[in-house]
Amino acid sequence: MSDAFIGGILHIFREICEGGKPGERTAIIDRTEADGTGNHGLLATLDRLSAEQASNPTALGLGAAAHAAHAAYYMEVTTLFARGEHPKMDWPRSFEPHTVSATEWAATRLRLRAAYEDVLALVGETRAWDERAAGGLAGNLAHAAYHLGALRQVVKLA
Question: pTM of the prediction?
Answer without folding.
Answer: 0.93
